[in-house]
Design goal:
Mean pLDDT: 97
Order of helices and strands: EEHHEHEHEHEHEEEEHEHHHEE
CATH superfamily: Thiolase/Chalcone synthase
Keywords: Acyltransferase, Cytoplasm, Fatty acid biosynthesis, Fatty acid metabolism, Lipid biosynthesis, Lipid metabolism, Multifunctional enzyme, Transferase
Bound molecules: oxa(dethia)-CoA
Distance between the termini: 15 Å
EC number: 2.3.1.180
GO biological process, one term: fatty acid biosynthetic process
Low-confidence stretches: none
Largest sheet: 5 strands, mixed
CATH architecture: 3-Layer(aba) Sandwich
GO molecular function: 3-oxoacyl-[acyl-carrier-protein] synthase activity; beta-ketoacyl-acyl-carrier-protein synthase III activity
Structural class: alpha/beta
CATH topology: Peroxisomal Thiolase, Chain A, domain 1
Number of strands: 13
Number of domains: 1
Radius of gyration: 19 Å
Protein name: Beta-ketoacyl-[acyl-carrier-protein] synthase III
Length: 324
């Protein structure tokens, strides 16, 4: 599609929580968490809301793109942890950046949300309906974790990442595919609002924390990463040598290492930063993309593969020709 990424940004809460800090109140250890997941620390909100993180990431992406809020005509926030049921987080971002003529809405596709957002926005830009879109993955997952459950709460972190998409002369976003596998919806769940009305009394047992089948998602994720890379290489007549970076969702380094081992891919090409952030769901890919961009690792013409996977179950992948 004739769409390119022209700016990126990220924002995380100020509070860093190390594995050792978790082991002061959970039966866990830095050794277990790091060896099973590659995670060393994560950022956990002590007051920053999802919309505040998204707004800050958006402002940085605008600055990076040399655009201002008025230039943005589409805002999509991918999140499973919005501040409010309504308004959408995207509307709060819209107001804060002054994108007064934009269409703004949230999408729920868990850890695949950012790639889903890129897909939706690219269709609108490619069809010339809109010129500049702001896509944000933002989460405050710490709101939906059981902090007594060591098998879940050690894995996740809070944060937001943003990217701005604009029209391009060349096809810079290629082979984008987003798939949902609803029959596996039980693998990762978090209840929404309680059914509570004059006919249904409050349920004492009601809880809205994440629960998941980690092993099943692990296998699903390995398969998704392997198949997505192969599909993209085949569709574009490329070999893995032509790819500069793969940016997978940052759930667990062992998922990525399993792909590398099975396929013999060069490990250096797989960008990993879960050691610092943990799993930030929809935010993980745009945070990683922004790190690559701001650290000067992306050069014009580079080929990047983005791959998201997670709750739904959902997955999504795309080939990006980097051209700012
Ligand atoms: O964003 C997408 C959504 N999620 C994912 O992508 C997650 C994908 N799955 C995974 O990353 C891994 O399956 C986990 C990290 C969640 C779990 O790793 P695992 O190697 O599958 O461990 P396990 O669940 O089989 O647990 C092994 C042992 C158990 O003890 P027993 O039954 O062997 O005695 C657990 O109770 O490790 C225990 N355990 C822990 N021990 C210390 C589980 N969590 C912890 C912990 N600290 N935090």
């Amino acid at each position: 599609m004739k769409v390119k990424i022209v700016g990126t940004g990220r924002c995380v809460p100020s509070n860093v929580v190390t594995n050792d800090m978790l082991s002061t109140f959970l039966d866990t250890s830095d050794q277990w968490i790091y060896s099973r997941t590659g995670i060393k620390q994560r950022y956990i909100s002590t007051g920053e809301s999802n919309s505040q993180l998204c707004i800050e990431a958006a402002k940085k992406a605008l600055k990076n793109a040399n655009l201002n809020g008025k230039d943005i005509d589409l805002i999509i926030v991918a999140t499973i942890t919005p501040d409010k049921v309504t308004p959408a987080t995207a509307c709060l971002v819209q107001s804060a950046i002054g994108a007064s003529s934009a269409m703004a809405f949230d999408i729920s596709a868990a850890c695949s949300g950012f790639v889903y957002g890129i897909n939706i926005a690219s269709q609108f830009i490619n069809s010339k309906a809109y010129n500049n879109a702001l896509i944000i993955g933002g989460e405050v997952l710490s709101k939906i974790l059981d902090w007594q459950d060591r098998s879940i709460c050690v894995l996740f972190g809070d944060g937001a990442g943003a990217a701005i998409l604009s029209r391009s002369e060349e096809d810079c976003i290629k082979s984008i595919e987003c798939v949902s596998v609803g029959e596996k919806s039980d693998c990762l769940t978090c209840d929404g609002l309680e059914l509570k009305n004059i006919y249904v009394p409050h349920q004492e047992e009601f809880s809205n924390n994440i629960s998941m089948n980690g092993k099943e998602i692990f296998r699903f994720a390995v398969r998704v990463i392997e198949n997505s890379i192969e599909r993209i290489l085949n569709e574009n007549n490329l070999t893995f040598d032509d790819i500069d970076y793969v940016i997978p969702h940052q759930a667990n380094s062992r998922i990525i290492e399993a792909v590398i081992k099975a396929k013999g891919y060069d490990k250096e090409k797989f960008y990993m930063n879960m050691s610092q952030y943990g799993n930030t769901s929809a935010a993980s890919i745009p945070i990683a993309l922004d790190e690559l961009n701001k650290n000067g690792l992306l050069k014009e013409g580079m080929k990047l593969i983005l791959i998201g996977f997670g709750g739904g179950l959902t997955y999504g992948s795309a080939l990006i020709n980097w051209k700012k």
